[in-house]
Amino acid sequence: MHSLLPLFIAIPLGAAFLGLIIAKLWRGAGGLFAFLGTLSLMVFSFCLLGQPPFIYKMGGWIPPVGINLVSDGLSGFMLVVINTVAFLAIVFSLKYMELYTAKPKYYALFMLMLAGMNGVALTGDMFNLFVFLEIASISSYALVAFGCEHEELEASFKYLILGGAASTFILLGVAILYSLTGTLNMADMAQVFSSGKVNSAALFALAFFTMGFGVKGALVPFHAWLPDAHPSAPAPISAMLSGVLIKVLGIYALTRIIFNVFGFTPTIGAILMALGGLSMVVGALLAIGQDDLKRLLAYSTISQIGYIVLGLGLGTPLGILGGLFHLLNHATFKSLLFMSSGAIEYSTGTRKLSQMGGLNKRLPLTTAVSTTGFLSVSGIPPFNGFFSKLIVIIACVQAHQYIYAGVAVFVGLFTLLYFMKVQRHLLFGDLPERLKGIKEVPFLMGFSLVVLALLCLGLSFLYPLMSKTILASARDALLHTSAYIKLSLGG
């Protein structure tokens, strides 16, 4: 199992460069390498589940001198989420990207983005976390602009500027921590801070991390880039951005640093809960007035990320478990919704709700899977979104955070309201004359949609098992910093 960890970075890097080179002779090479690469990574990620925590020492160098990759409950959980969504996005792309030119470049950028996300999830070194974060970020900037139209280029430029500012904050935070501790190994830093050396300079670095990763995770008030970037990108990239990228580069990275490097405190928890509550409310209020389907989904993402951060900010075992479960659920239903929006645009040629209606008459499969996504994100039982939201609300009540529990309930009802509006304008009513001849999407696109829809239902019934296995392991990795230090430094 130790030899699997570097493959999560090496395989997508190799697929990106080999696919691009061989595509000079055969244009289908990029898609084939991406498909085989993501399929193998998804299988490897499931192989890691249930394995005891271990590390991989790069070049055989012993930490903290050498760089290490860490496989614990949290990184294994994130690898499953990242690579499962990536595989389904690639399957969806095989037909969807026929609308675009330069497909080999698309697959190369996709695999580079995947390599960066896997690296962020695995690395135990602060500077390498920054390097992998930049690999994923720069690839995503290019993918947002892939259509090369005015809208895409403007959104990518805004994303680039704000993302560059965020990366600067993160790099400054890393530099401050290195000057304080004399190390870049995250567990070694945690050992220094555990002895009571968290001074004002370290808190200043934490503020930089909160701003930098807050931008990457699209937390309010750092969210300005997301409503433009997500609608502009191709549908599978929107699914990757919303489903996994902002969670890995933003929420996961910030959470790992707070819990396993600095150590969680009530003050830090209060800040996270405030950011989560603000994101929930602002995202929901901005979503309700949107006519562009993908833009509405983008604002919904901001709102749903708030639930994750609220649960993690509680700092209680149940709150963290609920936040992680909602992270998994959001990856499934938001990937499903963005791919469904791509399927609708593929069939109708528009994303405007006001120009559609009655699609259930011509697109029964797309109607069924998108309705599943709408019900899941709205928190309707028995779909997965209901249970993770309920757990976060119960955790708020148990922690005596009654205001945040009320906010979570209010936002859940508001989410149901604006997705009922989407259902009415999109799927029901009269079918416009120009859409009389539309057809369902090809098989490969439908395959990804059906799998994600089944996951939205299946994860609800798997929760009792996951709460004692994969979710419990991920939660414990955050709560037990001493175990993370011992694993990373002792091997």
Description:
By secondary structure, this protein is an all-alpha fold. It has one domain (2-490). It has 19 helices and 2 strands. A two-stranded antiparallel sheet has the order 1-2. It starts with 6 loop residues before the first helix and ends with a helix. The mean pLDDT is 90.
Give the helix/strand class. mainly alpha
Order of helices and strands: HHEEHHHHHHHHHHHHHHHHH
Through-space gap between termini: 14 Å
Number of strands: 2
Name the shape in a single word. globular
Give the DSSP E fraction (strand runs of 2 or more residues): under 5%
Number of helices: 19
Rg is: 21 Å
Question: Uncertain runs with pLDDT below 50, 5 residues or more?
Answer: none
Main beta sheet: strand number and arrangement?
2 strands, antiparallel
* Count of structural domains: 1
- Kindly state the percentage of residues in helix: over 70%
What's the average pLDDT? 90
Strand numbers in spatial order across the main sheet: 1-2
SSE diagram, text form:
Elements: H1 7-22, H2 29-48, E1 54-57, E2 68-71, H3 73-96, H4 103-122, H5 126-144, H6 150-181, H7 186-194, H8 200-216, H9 226-232, H10 235-262, H11 266-287, H12 293-314, H13 317-348, H14 364-377, H15 384-398, H16 402-426, H17 443-466, H18 470-479, H19 481-490
Antiparallel strand pairs: 1-2
Helix pairs in contact: 1-2, 1-4, 2-3, 2-4, 3-4, 3-10, 3-13, 3-17, 3-18, 4-5, 4-10, 5-6, 5-10, 6-8, 6-9, 7-10, 7-19, 8-10, 9-10, 9-12, 10-12, 10-13, 11-12, 11-16, 12-13, 12-15, 12-16, 13-14, 13-15, 13-17, 13-18, 14-16, 14-17, 15-16, 15-17
